[in-house]
């Protein structure tokens, strides 16, 4: 990797000839008119605008399809010397505004598409008190600024003489010393070589034009030997804006060399398979990571899906497994809904979707995944990951272990997968689960719903339709205001033990009063018998007697025991330490 400053004029010539082009992963140019003017002002004031990053073309491990920068006159089939990895927006803006003779196709701050030329107001550029918006202006492609619906011309720069009269210097010739000199000579002649005009323009040349012609940008150059994963990592470290270089963008450019439109293919798959409430969280990179995991498992070699493995993914493998994997994700979606996880907001770990979908895809063979025994084994592995809280960081090694060990366990009666044996849940963790940021918190809510939890007023089971229509959310059982008023420990009343899924209508009735009071309100609101309401409450693992008698401390102990039993049932594992000194100190009793 080399870093050096390059004259802006050289960079613009490279863009113009096609010596510097974009790899296919770079998306369209997006800067608006105001941002272009701000960039021009930075350059003419000789302020830094950040570094660009180039990659030498011809890297044997990275065969990128390339394209000229938007607006460039370079031939589409011209082979570049370098590819622009970072700096696309700035270089495109500067090329179109300061070098190209065509109007700049940009947009307003409201997103309306416009075409603009950029000018330097000579007098304002030399006035220290002038505002920036007076120094650099943009005009329409007609070079006329009008008002009154086009009937009145406010600024007319449509001819060279109009530019001289208005003392407006066209910025698209500022980097071309020959054209700038020609404009200057005609400008002097227009004013009959007036000494004041000459003195002012000479000052402009020395303070603005010449420094702009000498302006240089730092350029980081990655040589052609740089490996793919290093290109990706370096880009992520230095990228100053615009489109981030994900693994997906790199693979898109690599596949484009074989004329495969990966971005369009993913867009179609996203719309067809990944637009639902749960799978909408799956990104293009997630899909490629999962496919790499699946492909490496199917190949029979080393199973891995690290960044370097994804970047080495073959187009043939993508085409071979992409359709099956989409079905695998759909099966994973249905399996999670069976476990009462209905939306991405309530998904404990988005990362665990990767091994789950790959496992479901493999188990499609022979329709194994549709059998109750196999599904239950997959669910056991899944809940061990959730309640063991095992997917919160870099997980590629665990993914590889998962697909290998879970499949062997299911199909060959192998040893328990590491994710199951790694499961550990400290009973005191129940009190530290205070918000939905925790995977275990979301997991417990799903288990409550799976217990056929019913709405407190209607008695309707909280299935998918009720969950969506009734705006089910997580609320306190002993209300927050009541608990504060009673002086209860916040670590207890704000924990998962004192929370449950409740509909918006039921929660409004609950308010901030004691449970004994709000249960009476719910009976009246829903015309429900006390015995029926008691049965609804019990579906949430809540002892109705303790609730009706406002026995907060006893309720906390009783419900903690029930939640631990539910976690044990879901994971198929025994939770140890229920009678530890720590548990007795924090809960006031054993949780056996």
Key phrases:
592 residues; alpha+beta; six-stranded mixed sheet; four-stranded antiparallel sheet; 14 strands
| Structural class by helix and strand composition | alpha+beta
- Poorly predicted runs: none
User: What proportion of the residues is helical, as a percent range?
Assistant: 40-55%
Q: Compute the gyration radius: what is it?
A: 33 Å
Using DSSP, what is the number of strands? 14
What portion of the residues fall into strands of 2 or more residues?
A: 5-15%
Strand order of the largest sheet: 1-12-3-5-2-4
Q: How does the overall form come out from the CA principal axes?
A: elongated
N/C terminus separation = 62 Å
Describe the main β-sheet briefly: 6 strands, mixed
**Overall mean confidence score, pLDDT:** 92
Count of helical regions: 29
Tell me what the structure shows:
This protein is elongated. With 592 residues, the chain is α+β, with helices and mostly antiparallel strands. The mean pLDDT is 92. The protein has 29 helices and 14 strands. 41% of the residues are buried. The strands form 4 sheets. A 6-stranded mixed beta sheet has the order 1-12-3-5-2-4. Strands 6, 7, 8 and 11 form a 4-stranded antiparallel beta sheet that branches. The longest helix has 24 residues.
Secondary structure elements and pairings:
Blueprint: E1 2-7, H1 8-17, E2 20-23, H2 33-44, E3 52-56, E4 66-67, E5 82-86, H3 88-98, E6 104-107, E7 113-121, H4 122-125, H5 132-135, E8 136-140, E9 144-147, E10 152-156, H6 160-166, E11 168-170, H7 177-190, H8 195-213, E12 216-222, H9 228-238, H10 247-256, H11 262-273, H12 284-299, H13 307-311, H14 315-338, H15 353-362, H16 372-387, H17 396-412, H18 418-421, H19 429-432, H20 439-450, H21 464-469, E13 473-476, H22 480-486, H23 490-493, E14 499-502, H24 504-510, H25 515-526, H26 530-538, H27 544-548, H28 552-571, H29 581-587
Parallel strand pairs: 2-5, 3-12
Antiparallel strand pairs: 1-12, 2-4, 3-5, 6-7, 7-8, 7-11, 9-10, 13-14
